[in-house]
Amino acid sequence: MPEALESVLWCAALATWLMLFFGVIGERLKALSKFVSHLLAAASRHRAK
Question: What is the pTM of this model?
Fold first, then answer.
């Protein structure tokens, strides 16, 4: 039983770290996407002039 419990705890810890990691990556990608869209909008405004 202790080995099974240890395996479950390791899986739970790994799942927690993966959720945190992908949450941070998702936020960074959202910010990067917003930055790129602002750059594209500025470039298109500059070309229109």
Answer: 0.65
Tell me the pLDDT tens digit for each residue of 16-49: 999 999 999 999 999 999 999 999 998 888 776 6
Q: How far apart are CA 30 and CA 2, in angstroms?
A: 42
Q: DSSP readout, the chain? A: -HHHHHHHHHHHHHHHHHHHHHHHHHHHHHHHHHHHHHHHHHHHHHHH-
The distance from CA 30 to its chain's CA centroid, rounded to whole angstroms, is: 8
- The span from the CA of 49 to the CA of 14, in Å, is 53
CA distance 21 to 19: 5
